[in-house]
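Morning, I've got a small favour to ask if you have a moment. I've dropped the whole record in just underneath, so have a look.
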Amino acid sequence: MDNQTLVVLAAAVALFYAWRLFGPGRKASSKLVAAKLEAGASVIDVRTPSEFCSGSYPGAKNIPLDKLNSKLKSLGAKDDPLVVYCASGSRSAQAAKILKAAGFTDVLNGGPLHSMPMRTN
């Protein structure tokens, strides 16, 4: 490989890792999610109804991602804390973006259901 190819490759790798680290769909840390839940954040499950019925986070409200825009008014005040999750973290990242774009100011991407912290209350 010539030097120019190596520089381009290194830049691409650096950009990829920067995007993963600081990108908009980044999952919140488990400690931050746990603190929000402890403080009474509402939990939104953006999976399909059949996924929700197969098991969900205690107290979570099921609003599938494809219905989220039409259900925004049911989520309360725009400054109420919200934690969104799904099966893999992909749909919850999209949901967090939608909610933030709609003016919700305290939204965390909880990522996949299996990584959500256990409730202690």
